[in-house]
Design a protein that fits this description.
two-stranded antiparallel sheet; Rossmann fold
Length: 168
């Protein structure tokens, strides 16, 4: 059990963390990647794993000052040894350029389809020269499956609305 703010966090299982570790350990050492999480405790755990694996990383959450965010993002662009940013999806999904990476791992998702699509757009935008890869870690028989199903349904609704607007 870990202290996180004024709450206690209890780790139920390690399967998803182990999967993350396996994916990252197989990742080419000259490539950068971005990890999005919904929960602060996940961000902390993943950054710790990356530190243990000797993968240079930084985190961006709501508590990260604007000046610090700017410094982290600038360093991510220019420092070849700085390989990973771990972000809170609500904070990192809008207004930043992460095109120095071409791989994004969603460790967890929020129910917001807009946040999901905006997060994906952080690496797939003007200036990206590589094909982008998106990896979503979804554990069987968990809330992950329900969240992904909800996102798919929201995607279908968004597509239906856009298609109707085009037909008008």
């Amino acid at each position: 059990m870990d202290e996180f703010g004024d709450r206690k966090i209890t780790q139920i299982g390690t399967e998803k963390l182990n999967l993350f570790k396996g994916i990252v350990s197989d990742f080419p050492s000259d490539k950068k990647f971005v990890v999005f999480c919904r929960y602060l405790s996940e961000i902390s755990a993943l950054s710790q794993i990356l530190d243990e694996m000797k993968i240079n990383n930084q985190i961006i959450t709501g508590a990260t000052s604007m000046d610090m965010r700017r410094d982290i993002l600038e360093k991510f662009k220019i420092d070849k040894d700085f390989r990973c940013i771990v972000l809170n999806i609500q904070v990192g999904s809008v207004g930043i350029d992460l095109t120095s990476a071409d791989t994004m791992i969603f460790y967890s998702h929020s129910y917001s389809y807009a946040d999901y699509e905006q997060a994906r757009a952080r690496i797939h935008r003007k200036g990206q020269v590589n094909r982008c890869l998106y990896i979503s870690l979804v554990s069987k028989d968990t809330i992950d499956e329900r969240v992904m199903q909800a996102l798919e349904e929201k995607k279908d609704i968004a597509k239906l609305i856009v298609d109707r607007e085009v037909d008008l």
